[in-house]
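Lecture 7, part B: from sequences to assemblies.

Below are the input chains for today's worked example.
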Amino acid sequence: MKNGNDRAQLLHYIDVVSFAQYEAVLFLDTHPCDQEAMEYFRHYTKLRNKALKEFAERFGALTLDTEETDCAKTWNWVETPFPWELGGAC
Amino acid sequence: MPEYKTSCSCGAARTPISRVQPAAGQSGCGCRNDRMGNTNNTGGMSNRMGYSNTRMGNSGSPAGYNSRRTAQYTGNRMNNMAVSCPSTCDDQLEGLPIGMGYVPWQVWQDICDAQEGLQIGTIFAQLDKPFTECACGGGRK
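Predicted structure of the full complex, as structure tokens:
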């Protein structure tokens, strides 16, 4: 994902890669040895993690996993809008 | 005994089914369209025909009323009605026990683009079934 994309575009991209990743999850639940599905899952997991990280850096974390706390002095999680708030993920 | 046409309306040859012998009252090709006489045969076929008619609203019975009696009633009415259900001569489940559900084993293939997958609701092109037509219309496979 290029840095020039805005928040809505990045959110949509996260939706796309998250959906693809979870489709692979559902398939793998019944086909745990399928190597093609495993490779697909790894690919989209990588893209999703990268996109979530970029989103957190630019617009605030969507998940606690990507909340940056190492150098932070305050709890930024509550500073960014929640999904049901104006400007949130919805 | 039911009367049969000399040839099946679906065009299939009346040859014995190799995998499974036809059920009692069922014709050689397995098609349900080739019965034109009395339908007072096995309960299974009568029920299926009666149920279909009840759902289509042709039986004159209240919607959802699907007792055996209704099925027999509508089955007998079939004597004077044109059968409009699609041919089942190409039924790939022919010969399998009735009353069971089947989910064919899925294979990882025909994967859509992720963006398209999100739009249609699945990344598997084979599962893209909008079901925009009724069952008797064939639907989209």
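Note for the exam: Chain A has a mean pLDDT of 88. Keep this in mind when comparing with the next example.
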